[in-house]
Prior knowledge:
3 helices; transmembrane helix; transmembrane; about 60 residues; Cytochrome c oxidase subunit 2A; mainly alpha; about 0% strand; single chain; rod-shaped; membrane
Amino acid sequence: MNPNNEAHEGANDPEAQQIDEIVRSGPAGAIAVAGIATAIVVALWFAFYFLVFLPRGVIH
Length: 60
């Protein structure tokens, strides 16, 4: 896709090697942030359910 091979031009560059290591490790941080955000939303939903809906009782 890259006809100039610009990505491989500085393959011996230590900075490029560090970047390659980081990219190879994957999106662990993004997955952690998404998991924490999801846990917060679920916790808020349960809190709202138990603290608001259940105390009101059955509506007739």
